[in-house]
């Protein structure tokens, strides 16, 4: 039986609160997103220091296209600048960078930059950093189901063999350790269509801290909180205690 490890192997974060952080300072929302980029650097450093294996960040949801055109444009510009500035350092730190989501919606130059950063860092293993862009949990489940259906149509898979394991293999991030800790900043307590399948047994940590203020100490507190949880996976507390011996 799994003991709760003190350090989660895989952390996912909904980075919420950039807009409110900027509003508090009477600045445009893009100012908050820019400040949010520094918090991304903080959590990457924190994960490297704490020995977390994978970090998945919700940078742009399938629903974020509905935001004002100006804000979407500012976010895209920010992603491009971040890619250009950060890839070298991430590579030097042994970070493997991946973009997760439906990348077909992005323009060609941005897609090429994403592919180049992924290719450049593909051999790194210290930390898997996944940036979820144009991602939605329901989209992920649907694409896995479609992939399985196509395999059935091609005669490569029996329809009866489509079970949780078979679908799970087709979900985004399947090759990474299971998601242990799901963090959301900004005070709301919901998943917002992020990693719906992968979060099935994740511990949830909600904090009022606005994303630009989330730093290595905040990450450490979330990890400590995780370490106090008892992960039962459907078993009783007594069974878990017996297993711990
Ligand atoms: C949610 O806050 C945040 C986003 C939709 C964008 C996240 C982007 C970053 C943190 C920028 C840096 C990211 C990378 C990967 C370089 P919100 O705008 O919904 O805040 P609000 O709820 O206060 O309005």
TrEMBL record:
Pfam family, one: Prenyltransf
Top-level class of the enzyme under EC nomenclature: transferase
Required cofactor(s): Mg(2+)
Cofactor comment text: Binds 2 magnesium ions per subunit.
Reactions the enzyme catalyzes: 8 isopentenyl diphosphate + (2E,6E)-farnesyl diphosphate = di-trans,octa-cis-undecaprenyl diphosphate + 8 diphosphate
Alphabetized UniProt keyword annotations: Cell shape, Cell wall biogenesis/degradation, Magnesium, Metal-binding, Peptidoglycan synthesis, Transferase
Its biological purpose: Catalyzes the sequential condensation of isopentenyl diphosphate (IPP) with (2E,6E)-farnesyl diphosphate (E,E-FPP) to yield (2Z,6Z,10Z,14Z,18Z,22Z,26Z,30Z,34E,38E)-undecaprenyl diphosphate (di-trans,octa-cis-UPP). UPP is the precursor of glycosyl carrier lipid in the biosynthesis of bacterial cell wall polysaccharide components such as peptidoglycan and lipopolysaccharide.
Listed name of the protein: Ditrans,polycis-undecaprenyl-diphosphate synthase ((2E,6E)-farnesyl-diphosphate specific)
Organism: Rhodanobacter hydrolyticus
Primary gene name: uppS
């Amino acid at each position: 039986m799994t003991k709760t490890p003190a350090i989660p192997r895989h952390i996912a974060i909904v980075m919420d609160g950039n807009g409110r952080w900027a509003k508090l300072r009477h600045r445009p929302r893009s100012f908050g997103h820019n400040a949010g980029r520094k918090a991304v650097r903080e959590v990457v450093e924190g994960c490297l220091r704490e020995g977390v294996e994978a970090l998945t960040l919700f940078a742009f949801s399938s629903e974020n296209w509905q935001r004002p055109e100006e804000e979407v444009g500012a976010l895209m510009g920010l992603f491009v600048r971040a890619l250009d500035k950060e890839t070298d350092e991430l590579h030097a730190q042994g970070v493997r960078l991946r973009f997760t989501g439906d990348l077909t919606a992005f323009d060609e130059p941005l897609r090429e930059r994403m592919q180049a950063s992924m290719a450049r860092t593909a051999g790194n293993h210290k930390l898997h950093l996944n940036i979820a862009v144009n991602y939605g949990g329901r989209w992920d489940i649907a694409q896995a189901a479609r992939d399985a259906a196509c395999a059935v149509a091609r005669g490569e898979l029996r329809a009866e063999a489509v079970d949780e394991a078979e679908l799970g293999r087709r979900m985004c991030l399947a090759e990474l350790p299971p998601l242990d800790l799901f963090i959301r900043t900004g005070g709301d307590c919901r998943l917002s269509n992020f990693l719906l399948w992968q979060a099935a047994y994740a511990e949830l940590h909600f904090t009022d801290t606005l994303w630009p203020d989330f730093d290595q100490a905040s990450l450490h507190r979330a990890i400590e909180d995780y370490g106090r949880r008892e992960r039962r996976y459907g078993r009783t507390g007594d069974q878990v205690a017996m297993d711990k011996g």
